[in-house]
Amino acid sequence: MEAQTKTKFAGNYFSGIIKYGLLIGLGLSLFILIRLVFNKPITSIMSYWEIICVLFLIYLGVWLYRKGLKEKQISYKESYFVAFGSGIIGSIIYGMFVFVYANYIDSAFQDRCFEIQRAVSTNANLTDQQIESMVKPSSIAASSILIVSLISILSGFIIAFLLMNKKRKLQNKEDIENKNVD
């Protein structure tokens, strides 16, 4: 007879994913607007500053989730689910914002992206029409969703490790014999 291991989550991680995903998406969007106000508009969909902002916001989301738990104990699996899920929700919100940003807020953003793509040596054989299709607002938004999602997948492992504080423990002799863990 094979024993199954089940992990019990301490809180409602689904609501945490939605709540802190909104925090990440709106935080990134606000960061882009602040850069525009200070005359430092973005030149690409993800610069180092945006990556640092994503990492900070994912960390903050998982930390706030853990802080809101009754026992303030979170396992690695639960903290990873919250980090990953909220990062995905945040990336979708950020992608929608980038679409609006490129279309209506900063129309020169597409031109800056076009110039960057034209300067890349591997794009030298592409026509202007091909590069223009690469820098359409929908393409830019899709790229931003993919990049932020990838960052949340990878950073979720590290953030989950940093914020977990619930150790797996054996409960009694039967659990030891069956290797069931909490």
Short description:
With 182 residues, this protein is mostly helical. It has helices spanning 13-37, 48-67, 76-105, 108-119, 128-134, 137-163, 173-178. Residues 1-5 have low confidence and may be disordered.
- Helical content band: 55-70%
SS strand fraction: under 5%
Count of alpha and pi helical runs: 7
- Mean pLDDT figure: 85
Largest sheet: none
Number of strands: 0
| Weakly predicted, low-confidence segments | 1-5
Label the structural class. Answer: mainly alpha
CA gyration radius, whole angstroms? 21 Å
Which word captures the global form? elongated
Order of helices and strands: HHHHHHH
Head-to-tail CA distance between termini: 19 Å
Descriptors for this entry?
182 residues; 70% helix; single chain; mainly alpha; elongated; 7 helices
Description of the molecule:
70% of the residues lie in helices and 0% in strands. It is mainly alpha-helical and 182 residues long.
Layout of strands and helices, then pairs:
Layout: H1 13-37, H2 48-67, H3 76-105, H4 108-119, H5 128-134, H6 137-163, H7 173-178
Helix pairs in contact: 1-2, 1-3, 2-3, 2-6, 3-6, 4-5
